[in-house]
Amino acid sequence: MIIFTHHTGEPHGILGAQLAATFFQRKLSIPSIVIGIERSFSKDRLLAFIDDYYKKEERRVAFSHLCGRKDLIELIRALKREGFVTILGGPQAKQDYHGEPGNDSHPHRFRGLKSAVDLACQGPADGFRPDHFGMSDILLEHPWTKEIFLEVDWSNLYTFSESAKKHEVRLGQVLNAIGCPYAGRVQTVSLPPPVELRERGVPVLNVRSEGCVFCDVSRDKGFHGPVERDRVIAQIAGLPEIDGRKIPFELIDEYPLRSLGQLLEEVKHHGMRLSQIHLVCRVDDINGHASDLPEILEKARAQEAKIMFASIGFESFSDRLLQYFCKGITLGDILKCVETLRRLKDRFGNHFLYRRDEGANHGFIRPTPWDDGETMREMDRNIFLHRLFEDILPRHSTPLIIHHGSFLGDWIREIESTTGIAFGRDGTWIEWWNPSDSSLP
Ligand code: SF4
User: Fold this and answer.
1) Atom of ligand 1 nearest to the CA of 327
2) pLDDT exceeds 70 at position 438
3) 346 C-alpha to center of ligand 1: Å?
């Protein structure tokens, strides 16, 4: 079976899809590979490749991590038309299967993938049993637990642009926590309308959020605790090696620092040699462990391993926008964090990486629906005053993306219901910048 997923073509693995393929292969005896489809690809060549692959295999195909791509949704539909059993897993499988609430009364809303998908699977792949493959028009829901299957065959990934190419994974992923602990932070935020609707009588609305308001992971997955240490060690042991060292890997945990020092010790105890650990984490984790970081970095240096803050969720340099994002941090927290990073860099040099020119790509969301002259000036002033352009600011910011299943999706639908305005849809994403205002006064 092929599991199709979005891929950028960069040398990283795709943990979720590769784990699922490994589960199908090892536990259900279904030979499986993952094909990461790059943004630009030849559809004709892909269909020819699929035809050829399925000469010897049962015609069932899975999709994971669509990344909002309409071309992947179209591929699901095309394969369904050709008689394949189509399976949808990965993030937002349930919401994407059902579509947006109220799509009957609001036909412009995303109508879901029920007509294209035979079997949707919400949760980890280990919920699958062989008899599920014979079912159709069904959503399977399997809970996330700390006991999920965690073996990964890192050699099962291919990418497709003009042809299927074996993908040499140079950056792996190791699961240290199931979901995000911050997703448990329930808050209500008062959100003004997008700037261009400000003068049009659209009200400020209260929106409930768990974790960051724009996050599609928090609602989809929640938080189910840390992965036990021996299972983290087993994942590291399963990573490929280059020149006797494990390939760099991302430690998946928004709060990794509480366990990182101990993890380094146990890795050493097991005789494994690391090259580089990438951390994708929150500002409050760095601030909360600023005094522990020198000791952690000493341990890494002693093992000749590097620690890289590959992506820190700054997201904005305006207190007002941070509050709208429910980010749980202030500009003051961000500046304290940046000061810590710069100090550690002076002390640990090449063993500690966090700068843009060292490969880091920190979170910075812009444009947003609430950008106005005041927030733009405030941000530009802070970026200049604190020299954030030197090391922190990413090459490109990320526009605010509203997946229809996120809390901001609720916000948009409430604006639509209370005003009659309709925002554009682009596949599973909502175009907050594209309101149709025919019903406005
Ligand atoms: S954006 Fe990051 S920190 Fe915020 S809820 Fe999502 S995963 Fe957690």
Assistant:
1) 4
2) no
3) 29
